[in-house]
Amino acid sequence: GAGVSQSPSNKVTEKGKDVELRCDPISGHTALYWYRQSLGQGLEFLIYFQGNSAPDKSGLPSDRFSAERTGGSVSTLTIQRTQQEDSAVYLCASSLVAGAHTDTQYFGPGTRLTVL
Amino acid sequence: GEDVEQSLFLSVREGDSSVINCTYTDSSSTYLYWYKQEPGAGLQLLTYIFSNMDMKQDQRLTVLLNKKDKHLSLRIADTQTGDSAIYFCAEIFGNEKLTFGTGTRLTIIP
Questions:
Q1: Nearest residue of B to residue A33 by CA position?
Q2: Which chain B residues are closer than 8 Å to A106 by Cβ?
Q3: How many of the other CB atoms lie within 10 Å of CB of A83?
Q4: By the 8 A CB rule, do A69 and A32 touch?
């Protein structure tokens, strides 16, 4: 595709419900990243994938958060039993490969999650 | 912890130069980046600089790097209303993940 796309653009959910956020990377990009942007924490790294594997999950805030990537393309970030502190904008990025520092990470528009 | 620091706000008159400053933390960072975020939009990469450089110029943008002081700056010449946005500096920390600053909201005064 022309750029990184994310869906939904906005999600409002009730505390305790599960949510799934989707990211479609740029075609041909093997690396995919999830970040979270919130008022209190700024922009923080969550997880990245090289292909379908996730070498670094260190940023996931709790075991309620998980992510998967299938077919080396689409990724889904799942948050179980959502809490109000999960409210944030979840940003996805992709790059040609991971580990090449000059390889630009291109960002999607984000999914704004609001937990009531 | 790793904190990349920026001033939160900057106001500049249209046509003047904007200088956005950033202090980063990891002296072993190999690349440093500037991203722009407009309202409701994702992050757009503006420019990056390799740590063995001290300056990089790209049209209206000039990046200065002082590695000794771990200080990075972004200068925007002839600032326009379309430059209004939040600007984030970021460093590569560890392997591939970006560590971002707090962001500087640039406001253009007509």
A1: B97
A2: 45
A3: 13
A4: yes
Is A45 in contact with B95 (Cβ distance < 8 A)? no
Q: Please state, in angstroms and rounded to a whole number, the distance separating the CA atoms of residues B101 and A71.
A: 33
Q: Which residues of B3-24 are buried (b: 16+ CB within 10 A; e: fewer)?
A: ebebeeebebeeeeebebbbbb
Interatomic CA distance for residues A14 and A6, integer angstroms: 21
Contact A74, A13 (CB under 8 A): no
CB A39 within 8 A of CB A113: no
Percent of chain A with pLDDT over 90: 66
What tens digit of pLDDT does each residue of B29-83 get? 678 899 999 987 788 989 989 888 899 999 999 999 998 888 999 999 999 999 9
The reply to whether residue A106 touches residue B31, judged by beta carbons under 8 angstroms, is no
Residue A44 at interface with chain B, using a CB cutoff of 8 Å? yes
- The pair of structure tokens assigned to B89 is 């500096």
Question: What DSSP designation does A110 have?
Answer: -
pLDDT of B99 above 90:
no
